[in-house]
């Protein structure tokens, strides 16, 4: 194993990220153009812009989301134990959010912000175009204020891995929370996994992310755009080469082209699982769930990649970013776990 | 035509009912037993019981619902114009509710109750069992307080039909609203349609519903259980016979056995449209949408029934109580409209 995942911990993975209620709606490509939205990307919006897009979009379906939280639900679906660290407000959407996580079996003990806080529970307006691609408009609200004080550091010490989403680097307090969590993790022998989240996110925080990847991240998740942007290269093969020289393991996803898992001086190609893409929301989050599950079970790297592909295939085959069936059962049926 | 639907109105149908956000979750049959719930029925619950069921149930999906509101959305999907009369609070779920109706093209101008009102926007916890049947637990909240003061009586006069859900008879203020709306409708030559809503609802208000059916309702919607309960008979054929003697038109639905449309001294049998039942939520509401759409277009009674069957088949084939595709296009494809 290119990294040492502790096997004696209470919690397999603690996931830290933005607590967001997804508002999913179908939209035509013209809607994206009209509102200046880039298909497949995530845009941070303020309350006013969020309201304007919401007013214009069609009837929605509300489901609990947030990248790292989706990953935590995926982990439990595989049979792992997981906790979530993120911030909601004591409001209707906050109650729904906490309920859904706990009902899915994820530990969630971060105290909500009081109802009187001016920042509401965050939400992400997700426009799903006819090609199944999703375009996200995130109003962070209180999610953007998760801070070191919200973190139960005992939980970090009791976890085999922590998993952090790069989106959290967008705000000062959440950045402090990432640094505090990763420091605590390394002190406790807890492995640190991190997703680059989004190409624009890597652009916004390029130098910071380069430093994080070199110094703090044991398990890196990035898609093709993100890893090329991180290493300042145009060619995926060059990015893989660059990733070979970093510490730990890197899971590099390429959509329909599958993924490459880099670790221990080797690069393993992993194919996608066949699926009809209805809604791409959550594909990366669930890939991470499968890969992390594999790591906690001591699977070899290609198997970790296959578990990721399996989970991603399930979640893109329906609306919403959380699995509708037991991923553990799927893995057993596929003879992987 | 057994009734005279005005053809010169601005609005085809104004629908009045409980404004409820649906919280849909899959549940095992054992969950219903454990919580003393009767499959397929609607139970009115208080805030405490609603919270207890919610705590125990799995992760949910939130979508705007409410029977008459679902019908209004179905009408617009057919190409008709519709408005909704119901009450939400100025809170997160209330905003979502109003957005979804307006985004679907339904007129909705009832002022929300202030945020400080102790009654929140109503919600309906819907447990969908593996057989596709749905069991509903309704916390009315502010929805149960729609009152004559909330009604725009000009809208009633500008509508060809008003459609009222029987569930509204459960509360004093909503009962007054029904009486005021139906009085205003009859004074304006607006036809009054009414659904009996639920077998238990007919039991709770039996004598009132008998009087309503005899004196106020031009277009009656009832399923087999409801119509048998209304007329105090065990046999559906006897109920049809009883319905023959009442004013106007009666649409009597029988689930998989199709429906019978009674009017003008005749009873017409209408078959169901084939569909795989994924979630029965909204079947009756969408049947009503199709039937009412037919009436506003001057279709004969069997055609009205077929339009109802078509819409019901669409909505039971997926989770949620509102159509995912254009019902107008479906009707054209079926050569009905």
Describe this structure in words.
Two copies of one chain form a homodimer. Chain A is of the alpha/beta class. Chain A has 13 helices and 13 strands. Chain A has an eight-stranded mixed sheet with strand order 5-1-8-9-10-11-12-13, sandwiched between helices. The longest helix of chain A has 17 residues, at 172-188. Chain A is globular and about 50 Å long. The mean pLDDT of chain A is 96.
CATH superfamily of chain A: Ribokinase
How many helical stretches of chain A?
Answer: 13
What's the oligomerization state?
homodimer
Number of β-strand runs of chain A: 13
Question: CATH topology of chain A, what is it called?
Answer: UDP-N-acetylmuramoyl-L-alanine:D-glutamate ligase
Biggest protein-protein contact in the assembly? A-B, 26 and 26 residues
Strand order of the largest sheet of chain A: 5-1-8-9-10-11-12-13
Q: Outline of chain A, from the CA principal axes? A: globular
Q: How many domains comprise the coordinates of chain A?
A: 1
Terminal CA distance of chain A reads 17 Å
Radius of gyration of chain A, taken over Cα atoms and rounded to an integer in Å = 18 Å
Helix content bin of chain A = 25-40%
CATH architecture of chain A: 3-Layer(aba) Sandwich
Structural class of chain A: alpha/beta
CATH uppermost class of chain A:
Alpha Beta
Spans where pLDDT lies below 50 across 5 or more residues of chain A: none
